[in-house]
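Dear colleague,

As promised, here are the two records you asked about, laid out in our usual form so they can be pasted straight into your sheet.

NAME FIELD: protein one
SEQUENCE, THEN STRUCTURE:
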Amino acid sequence: MLSLKHQLIWGASEAFRTIVPEPQHRIPIKWSTAVYPVLCYAPFVFLAYLTRRPDTYTIRLLMLPSVITSILVAAYRFTWTIPELNVYNWGQCLFAAVAIAKSLEFALNKEGMLKVGESRPGVKKGKAKDTLNGTVNGYAIESAGHPYVATWFYDAMEVAHTLRGLQWKFGQGVHIPKHTRPLERSAFLKATLDSFIKNFLVLDFLESLLKLFPGVGEPLGGSMFYPELAPVARYTVSTIIHLLTGSALLSGFGMVYDLITLIAVGLMDGSPLSWPPVMENPWISESMHEFWAKRWHQLLRQTFLVFGGYPGKWLAGNVGMLFGAFIASGLFHECAMYSMGRGFDHFPTLFFAMQGPILIIERLWRRFTGKKVGGWPGRLWVYFDMFILAQPMINAWHRRGLGGGLVIPPILSPTRLIVLPLVKSILHLIQS
């Protein structure tokens, strides 16, 4: 007869596998099943609604377990089975992790989610009663809702989707890049559309090049460190693949952000002031502190604070907060990639965990020398971290199919429809 301990372990394992089944037991996503993972997010939206309503703390706490369970079911119980779409499993689990972090914040914040200048959800305090909710780069902004969307639903969707927390209490202190586009609506939309097209073309070109590399560009994946090459050639090729991957990720971030901006401002009547740039030219960073705190995107800052930063601070103060946030970042990326059915590879976790000690080294340098890390030595330091130390992380992703995933369909790809066939024809003529 099993002991109570073994029965509890068995029961916990069975419960976990009910929510997160083994890959072979998951439900394929197709037209007939696609609605179910979407419906699983209904409790999350309702929780977002409650966090903007006063006196809902108890019900939010009671809802939290079911909300997290439904998000995990949406992310891990349903799966994309076409090999080229396997990378979408990673994407939907990254999204789920963000939603879980938000759910924890929605439920555990007794006061609810407040905007700048509010004493209670929707209630401004003191002198702020007649002022707008916060400023961004010197411009006052306030969401005005949408004439064709119910106010309660707009409010819930706004708090559910805000990541950097512009005009929100939790977003105070987050670095926001200055506006680089005209703030007049029509000019802003035109500039955003131009940026979207540019990012689309660059991403298409870089993705098409990545798919030319054997293994790396295939759905099942492969190492970018080709063992048949001599060491110098091997690491030259891996560095090229690494640069192409990083550049593609930057273009992809920009393209998706531009598309969402066009929808938010063009269709949902949002303010251009609410959509500053997502990044601030990370290529010119002169320290890793500048890179992570200012020039890299801050979209997931709050997610990592909820999962690791706040618990780390409780355990070990500010240093614990720093280490906890970066460890959470590594686990965030890796636990989501588990959904691709290719197991765990903790090189990504290790890379992000290393960023804590690296930032401590920069602080010690400033303390003992009196100077910040900066200038061309600082930029070389950043490039060493991002182009050398990060290669095992990118390789771990490519071995599991990142480069072979479908991002831009071939039928919509100018590079694969025009550029590559043209280059092949020219090379064929030269050889002839």
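NAME FIELD: protein two
SEQUENCE, THEN STRUCTURE:
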Amino acid sequence: MDYELRNIKDFLQLYNRITDLCFNSCVDNLFGRDLTREEISCADNCVLKFTNVNQRLLKVYVGVQADINQKRMSEFEAQQAKLLAEQQQQQQQTAVQLTPETATTSNTTESPAV
């Protein structure tokens, strides 16, 4: 539901931007109710250009975002591998530290019996 609301909000913001931009660029006369042919043509061209630019930007964004996601994934995997290697190294160090203690413990228990 939250995703749908965000999409509606984004669409309305885009619509408001187009309306504001094209109105300010194309409408010259506020004394009549109807638009002139020139104003209609200008508004049509304005909306068409804005839409085309927006579509191109979205295509570039999608392509760049895919590259960014791939880079982030590679960085994440490298970080995970590093953490795993550090964890294995710590486990090996712990195992090495425990090994001499068990050897000395077994030596001390065997000595009194002899």
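A couple of things worth noting about protein two: DSSP finds two helices and no strands in the chain. Residues 37-113 form the longest helix (77 residues).

Best,
R.
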